[in-house]
Amino acid sequence: xxxxxxxxxxxxxxxxxxxxxxxxxxxxxxxxxxxxxxxxxxxxxxxxxxxxxxxxxxxxxxxxxxxxxxxxxxxxxxxxxxxxxxxxxxxxxxxxxxxxxxxxxxxxxxxxxxxxxxxxxx
Amino acid sequence: xxxxxxxxxxxxxxxxxxxxxxxxxxxxxxxxxxxxxxxxxxxxxxxxxxxxxxxxxxxxxxxxxxxxxxxxxxxxxxxxxxxxxxxxxxxxxxxxxxxxxxxxxxxxxxxxxxxxxxxxxxxxxxxxxxxxxxxxxxxxxxxxxxxxxxxxxxxxxxxxxxxxxxxxxxxxxxxxxxxxxxxxxxxxxxxxxxxxxxxxxxxxxxxxxxxxxxxxxxxxxxxxxxxxxxxxxxxxxxxxxxxxxxxxxxxxxxxxxxxxxxxxxxxxxxxxxxxxxxxx
Lengths: 122, 280
What we know:
The structure holds two protein chains of two kinds. By secondary structure, chain A is mainly alpha-helical. Chain A has helices at 2-40, 54-62, 66-94, 98-121. Helices cover 83% and strands 0% of the residues of chain A. Chain B has eleven helices and two strands; from the N terminus they run ααααααββααααα. The model of chain B has no long low-confidence stretch (mean pLDDT 83). In chain B, α1 runs parallel beside α10 (227-250) and α7 (160-176) runs antiparallel to α8. Classes of the chains: A mainly alpha, B mainly alpha. The interface between A and B is large, with 56 and 50 residues.
């Protein structure tokens, strides 16, 4: 029981770290974007127009457009839970809890399938 | 400028409530975005999805640190919610949603009744049931420290297959109907699997981020997420969720339940009526 507890503590530590990094990185980018938006008085794009491809986003960031910076921050925010699942696989493997390695791999695969289906359906 | 401040403030409130109750906060955000700001429902849903992820990540940091959530339960049940969400998204436009709205709405109303019973029943929320063989096999039983009662609470998880099935349904509901990312999760853990309310809420917080991430990428690349709306909202929520996840631990489970019950009742009623074609 104590072993299992120590294992969970270790895994929780790793996952907590990745979440904290993800939140701090995305929040920082979002604050910069929001600051730019207030300085420029707009997103740098039309009212319902904003970049949705990586090329457009990075071009926009190069031009210091608030909308593009914010979109990058939002993408980092979306990516954080996915990274959390990836890191969990590693953490469970390190603790040799193979049942949960497989369960977490299954979650990741399903997640990726969902994203692919989403792209096709859009 | 005014709009940014309004969105930041709404975000903070939604984040606090979302973190405490383990829900995405769409129930608070959608009316504000559509009615107060006049946003198209498509963009309101896009903003709600971002909010779910922000609530989840913001709240989970504290819940992990304080050992409030049940990581194994989350990982195991995520299989059910993610598969359900995909199937739900695929069934959009194929299956008539009226029947499903009534079905899931009825479940929420039943859960409302159940929660009221629990509120009126024993003061202690924890209970030792019969040991579930699945819970044993999957190491699901857990423990948490209740800061409000200053006591370590050990709990056993019951009816794992039924909970798994309900989570599958919850996934379908959120994929197909676009609502209830957290409400169904909390009620499934609390009502069916007999987990205490606090770990149920904390675990739901962790899970809903993953379920939402899959659909969020679709919304992101299809242009349904407005940067000028989502940025202040997400920042407000991150702050709110951080605060809320700390408040929750000092709240008596009874009070969390008291806040939860009206929301549950309202959502259940709304869904059943929607199933019959009535909008409220």
